[in-house]
């Protein structure tokens, strides 16, 4: 294992410190916790959004804390759910009396711990609602999940629910729009290489020199097929076909596209994938409103990518385009 | 070689297509060329900035084309200088009668080809000036370079010279400020793994399971030391020490910091490096004005990082903070 780290047990702490030091104008750490919150107080009381999960998916989630997106992000150990007390600290810190929406990726540990935190918060009189993101079109159940996994589509939930909250909407309304995004978003990924959790010290799985895993999860969970390596175009066709089947998009529909790198994939390759994705959508007369290419939901240094499509209506389009000022999503 | 590509000979073409399709509002391709230019015409005639070089360093350079930064970027084949005719096309396309500044990284091929293009443009009555970026503090001469190499510090030249050009400054003045940035910026990198040029099909060098290369160039050129793997803190100390020696920073100086990932390095690790870099600078009472952590000047899927320090004065600070609207640098 070759990594730019000091102590495998301290990677999350040191990452959070380095992140706050880099972005003092945007982020601050709640002392003694693994919670990062906005460093400015929103101009008026608003519904607050909290997300989080295991570390190793950076810039998710702290990279999306800021105006127009999240109010707080809770970091667990690498690929490990944060504990309920950490989530509870985040909820208490960001609540402005308008309630808190928890955005949870669909992993059993995350759901259990975020729900326990919600109960603790409700007991202190804080209104809490939650949504569970399950955008992975690859498999129905998986290693750490009942039902579909939550992956890169989560970032669209942050963006759109965050924009509505910033406009002063109620907790019910922010919950409604977050649920709408979840209904309208699907993703699918593939991996060329594994990644190594620092505390484990060795790769999470093995894969041959000419193999790839289609439908791989962001913690290395098995996908739907261990296949021979294919071309970028063939891979794009496979991923998009699964998503289109699931989302039932039709000619004339509008989408936002995300081509997400898992950690070790050059931007060059992500753009080559995007070329084919755009061509497929164009052939089907599905209109691409906007495209996001880069690292949004990574798996440490895994090589591979995921494709996400979000079906847009007028409300989602307007909120997607609303201003955001975070480390990893900036929009004027 | 496992890569998300179709044909090793077509990676640059397909990447440029995929990039334009993703960012139609920002970029367009000059037909039949490897040149990307802004898709909006600047509101008034201004000095135009052109950069470029071999591909494989994305988001450099097309990711920095847009308001407040570059007007055009010329892409060569992977790790290969673009030809003079391509650079000449870029110059002709972006010139608005106020002259063109070429921002060249210090590689012999780039300098030769950009200079030939400049001569072709001058012959057609276009005023052209150029700067050569040589920020790499690691080695004096190198495989493809006489003098220091140009690496991630180039992005600060794009940002600051681009901001001054956007304000309507003369070609002489934009050239002056670009030269000032070059005098004030130093970088140094290190690599944990090699990368594979698609057309070559195999890694550019070999490195042991417990080795790293200190001072590695962005094309895999040898650095100053093949050393045993060290901790993130030790690596940060080594890189920053070389830069500080070279830049002669003193207590009270102000800097901008860039922690640049070479392609396969998780953000987590870059933030851990940043933590130590910030601590070192704080100890020396060097004030960090702003910090940029992410992928700015990559080497395909090489693992490793570079650290860049830019010494700021009031003019450079103001221009660094000026608005920019590009794929990879957004500032309100």
TrEMBL record, chains A, B:
Domain DhaK: 7-329
One GO term of the biological process aspect: glycerol catabolic process
InterPro entries with a match to the protein in the record: DhaK_1, DhaK_dom, Dihydroxyacetone_Kinase
Pathway(s) of this molecule: Polyol metabolism; glycerol degradation
Record has Nucleotide-binding as a keyword: no
Listed GO CC annotations: cytosol
The name this protein goes by in its record: phosphoenolpyruvate--glycerone phosphotransferase
Organism phylogeny: Bacteria, Bacillati, Bacillota, Bacilli, Bacillales
Gene name as annotated: dhaK
């Amino acid at each position: 294992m070759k990594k730019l780290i000091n102590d495998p047990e301290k990677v999350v702490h040191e990452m959070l410190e380095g992140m706050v030091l880099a972005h003092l104008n945007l982020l601050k750490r709640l002392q003694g916790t693994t919670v990062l919150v906005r460093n400015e107080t929103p101009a008026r009381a608003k519904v607050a959004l909290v997300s989080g999960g295991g570390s190793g998916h950076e810039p998710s989630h702290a990279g999306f804390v800021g105006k127009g997106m999240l109010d707080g992000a809770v970091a667990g150990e690498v690929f490990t759910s944060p504990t309920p007390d950490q989530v509870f600290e985040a909820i208490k810190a960001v609540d402005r009396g308008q309630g808190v929406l928890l955005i949870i990726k669909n992993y059993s540990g995350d759901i259990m711990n975020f729900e326990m935190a919600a109960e603790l918060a409700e007991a202190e009189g804080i209104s809490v609602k939650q949504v569970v993101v399950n955008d992975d079109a690859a498999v129905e159940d998986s290693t750490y999940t009942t039902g579909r996994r939550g992956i890169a589509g989560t970032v669209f939930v942050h963006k759109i629910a965050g924009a509505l909250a910033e406009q002063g909407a109620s907790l019910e309304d922010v919950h409604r729009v977050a649920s709408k995004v979840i209904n309208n978003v699907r993703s699918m990924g593939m991996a060329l290489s594994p990644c190594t959790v620092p505390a484990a010290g060795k790769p999470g799985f093995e894969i041959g020199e000419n193999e790839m895993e289609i439908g791989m999860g962001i913690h290395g969970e098995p996908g739907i097929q261990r296949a021979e390596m294919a071309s970028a175009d063939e891979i794009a066709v496979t991923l998009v076909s699964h998503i289109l089947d699931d989302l039932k998009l039709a000619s004339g529909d509008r989408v936002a596209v995300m081509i997400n790198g898992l950690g070790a994939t050059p931007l060059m390759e992500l753009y080559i994938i995007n070329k084919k994705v755009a061509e497929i959508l164009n052939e089907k007369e599905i209109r691409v409103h906007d495209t996001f290419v880069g690292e949004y939901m990574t798996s440490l240094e895994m090589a591979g990518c995921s494709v996400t499509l979000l079906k847009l209506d007028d409300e989602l389009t307007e909120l997607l385009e609303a201003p955001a000022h975070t480390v990893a999503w900036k929009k004027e």
